[in-house]
Amino acid sequence: MAEVPLKPTLVAAAGFDATADALNLRDAMKGLGTDEDRIIDVLTHRSSLQRAEIAAKYKVAYEKDLEEAFASELHGDFERVCKYMVRPITTLLAEELHRAMHRPGTKEGVLVEILCSRSNKEIRLIAAEYHKLFNKSLESDIASDTSRDFEDLMLALVNAERDELHVKPPKPDPAHPAAVKPVPQPSAERAQNQAEQLYKAGEGRLGTSEKSFNMILATQSYEQLRLTFEAYEKISKKTFEQAIRSETHGDYQDALLAIGKT
């Protein structure tokens, strides 16, 4: 699948001063009326980490959560968006996953958007926050609210066992020397083997063996997957994206496509 260059639209502000921003937000909400433009100017020009720091400084300085201040001074969609923007991203994503699975009809697209593009560390943090907030495991809710191939893929992703070349491995534990698994480097030979497995699991048979798709797409590094997709195209004369579109459907297809484009 072709790589799409991505460029963030909201980046960390230079010369950032969380205390000054907290004061600016408080002044914007003091007295009669609210200066919404000042609030927008602060929140839309700070990164997620910077907004979290502003919220922490606000609570220390004024003994009130910034979200509570927004709730008392703002209204409607503007209030909701401002509260979301100062909420820790892990909390926000855990809440969105819970909301997606506990409203009438599970919103699978939310699970795809969150789980198919996160690192192992991010997924583990989200899962821990989910349990902290709702006293249930993310895995159990996925298992009870999704089904079949889509469920299997989501559970495989929540296991957070993808090979990650860019992540520094933890220091070996002398008491458990085998616990740290070395991350395999991308391999053309392995790519060829995986491409053949994927072809035999999809286009090369009647029906599709989703287990092979899940095992490879949920565990291999993105660098390895790119090599595998290139090898697949040589075997099939189709791109892997074209194969997914012809061999799968629905939410499961959306999830595979999302992983392939990451």
TrEMBL record:
Cellular component GO terms, alphabetical: cytoplasm; nucleus; plasma membrane; vesicle membrane
Region (Disordered): 166-193
Any one GO MF annotation of this record: calcium ion binding
InterPro entries per the UniProt record, alphabetical: Annexin, Annexin_repeat, Annexin_repeat_CS, Annexin_sf
Record flagged with keyword Calcium: yes
UniProt keyword terms in alphabetical order: Annexin, Calcium, Calcium/phospholipid-binding, Repeat
Entries under Pfam families matching the protein: Annexin
PANTHER family linked to this entry: ANNEXIN, ANNEXIN B11
UniProt remark on domains: A pair of annexin repeats may form one binding site for calcium and phospholipid.
Family: Belongs to the annexin family.
Protein name: Annexin
Taxonomic lineage of the native organism: Eukaryota, Metazoa, Ecdysozoa, Arthropoda, Crustacea
Gene: AnxB11
